[in-house]
Amino acid sequence: MFNFKKFTIKSSNFLQTSKTYRYIIYFGVFFTTFFLLAVGLIPPKYSLEVGQVSPETIYAPRTVVDPYLTKLAEEEAVAKVPDVYVHDQSITNHALTGLSSILEKIEQISLESDEEMRRSLIETLPKPLQQETALAKLINLSENSRLLIYNKIYEVVERLLNQGIKVNTLENAQNNLIEEINSLTTDLELREYLYTLSSEFLKVNLVYSAEATEQNRREARRLVEEVKILKDSKIIDKGEVVTEHHIIQLEALGLQKTSNQDLVLYLGLLILTLTIFAVIGVYLYMYQQDVYYDSHKLLLLGLILLITLILAKALSFFSIYLIPITLAPLLISILFNRGLATMMTIVLAILTGVIVGNEFKFIVLALVSGLVAVYTTKKVIQRSDLTRAGAIISGVNVTILVSISLLTGSFGGTTSMIKNLIIDIMMGMLSGVIASILAIGILPFLENAFSLTTSIRLLELANPNNGALKRLLIETPGTYHHSIIVGNLAEAAAEEIGADPILARVGAYYHDIGKVTNPYYFIENQLGMENIHDSMDPKESAKIIIDHVEQGVQLAKSFGLPGIIIDLIRQSHGTTKLEYFYHKAKELYGEEKVNEGDYRYPGPKPQTKEAAILMFADSIEAAVRSIKQPTQEKICQIIEGIINNKISDGQLDQCPITLYEINKIKEKLTKVIMGIFHQRIQYPINKEEK
Question: Where is the HD domain (predicted)?
Answer without folding.
Answer: 479-623
